[in-house]
Amino acid sequence: MPLYEFKCASCGRDFSEIRKAGDYNSVACPECGSTETQKRVSMFSGGKATDCTPSGGG
Ligand SMILES: [Zn+2]
Fold first, then answer.
1. Is this structure's pTM higher than 0.70?
2. How far is the CA of 33 from the centre of ligand 1 (A)?
C-alpha cells in the first residue's frame, strides 16, 4: 500500500498515513483528530537505492 502525506488544516501538522490506493478521503489528524486534512503531493520519482539482486540458487 502506498504511503500518503497529509497536512492538517486545523493545527497545521503534517503526517503520513499508509492507505489503500485512492482511499485518502477521510483521514483524521493524529494530533487534534480533525478530519480537515489535505493530501500532500509526494514525489514518486525513482530515487531509492535499493539493492534487490535476484540471485537465484542458494
Ligand atoms: Zn490537526
1. no
2. 6
Task: Kindly report, residue by residue over 3-58, the tens digit of the pLDDT.
Answer: 889 999 999 999 999 888 777 778 999 999 999 999 886 655 555 555 566 666 65
Rounded CA separation 35/28 (Å): 4
Distance (Å, whole) CA 33 – CA 29: 4
Distance 27 CA to ligand 1 centre (A): 10
Q: Where are the domains of the chain?
A: 3-40
- Calculate how far, in angstroms, residue 22's C-alpha sits from the geometric centre of ligand 1: 21
